[in-house]
From TrEMBL:
It comes from Lupinus angustifolius. The chain crosses the membrane at residues 7-26, 38-61, 73-96, 102-122, 129-146, 152-169, 190-207, 227-248, 255-276, 282-299. It is a multi-pass membrane protein. The keyword Transmembrane helix applies. Residues 12-299 form the Sugar phosphate transporter domain. This is Sugar phosphate transporter domain-containing protein. It is found in: Membrane. GO terms for cellular component: membrane.
Length: 306
């Protein structure tokens, strides 16, 4: 039984890695290489798939018990989280139009820095000085990587930093807004409610900012039907990122998840360089390695301070 359990865990982790890296690379291919320049519409496709598949997983397949929204206040809290979540995903997709995946991941690794900043600004929660000290290599590594990045794009860099900050803000707000015992939702149920709200936020945005995107997509599909399959597969994969993350969290320890998460970014960098052949410098890789080391030290310091 232990052998089967170990194989099951390895399979889950492999599925988590594959879906994470797969959706990231496919987003990059669609938005940059393929020329489908509609990141808001792409995010809306992701959220639509998450809405439908979350309902199937919870209401039909009973993967987790259905948790209900208990009050109007809780509904507005989830709406606020959904809006911040939309900003983080849309900005992340926009940045992929301008930056290589490797550099995008280097910037994304600074999430702990923004999490610590927002936690202090919003909740006045102070960490141990050792924890703050470990954030120095996190930021320093990105500064080094930015200075030596051959494909550096200022707008893409700013948008990617904003996406990373929004992702950190969402995690801090989630801890605050859904902290009471009666409001706690597991990640599967939270996605079930957040995804449809995200579609509501994204629909007017894509209609206003990406004019006639539906007509353009249909015209593209008439010329190349593969775009339809790309969007369907990409959107389904976006849901499996959330599903596998929940399952890995459930079947491993928090420490294991942190270690796997740190390694996942490095794997994504290597795979993206092999596929897209984007130029990288030795200095840039050293900067990213320093950032990853800082994240590992940060995770260790957080664990010891508890």
């Amino acid at each position: 039984m232990k052998g089967k359990s170990r194989l099951f865990t390895i399979g889950l982790v492999s599925a988590w890695y594959s879906s994470n890296i797969g959706v990231l690379l496919l987003n990059k291919y669609l938005l940059s290489n393929y020329g489908f320049k509609y990141p808001i519409f792409l995010t809306m496709c992701h959220m639509t798939a998450c809405s439908l598949l979350s309902y199937v997983a919870i209401a039909w397949l009973k993967m987790v018990p259905l948790q209900t929204i208990r009050s109007r206040v809780q509904f507005f809290k989830i709406s606020a989280l959904s809006l911040v979540f939309c900003v983080s995903v849309v900005f992340g997709n926009i940045s992929l139009r301008y930056l290589p995946v490797s550099f995008n991941q280097a910037i994304g690794a600074t999430t702990p820095f923004f999490t610590a900043v927002f936690a202090y600004l919003i909740t006045f929660k102070r960490e141990a000085w050792l924890t703050y000290f470990t954030l120095v290599p996190v930021v320093t590594g990105v500064v080094i990587a930015s200075g030596s990045e051959p494909s550096f794009h200022l707008f893409g860099f700013i948008i990617c930093v904003a996406a990373t900050a929004a992702r950190a803000l969402k995690s801090v707000l989630q801890g605050i807004l859904l902290s009471s015992e009666g409001e706690k939702l597991n990640s599967m149920n939270l996605l079930l409610y957040m995804a449809p709200m995200a579609v509501v936020f994204l629909l007017p945005a894509t209609l206003i900012m990406e004019e006639n995107v539906v007509g353009i997509t249909l015209a593209l599909a008439r010329d190349d039907i593969k775009i339809v399959w790309y969007l369907l597969f990409n959107s389904t994969l976006a849901y499996f990122v959330n599903l596998t993350n929940f399952l890995v969290t459930k079947h491993t320890s928090a420490l294991t998840l942190q270690v796997l998460g740190n390694a996942k970014g490095a794997v994504a960098v290597v795979v993206s360089i092999l596929i897209f052949r984007n130029p990288v410098s030795i200095t840039g890789m050293m900067g990213y390695a320093l950032t990853v080391l800082g994240v590992i030290l940060y995770s260790e310091a957080k664990k010891r301070s508890k």
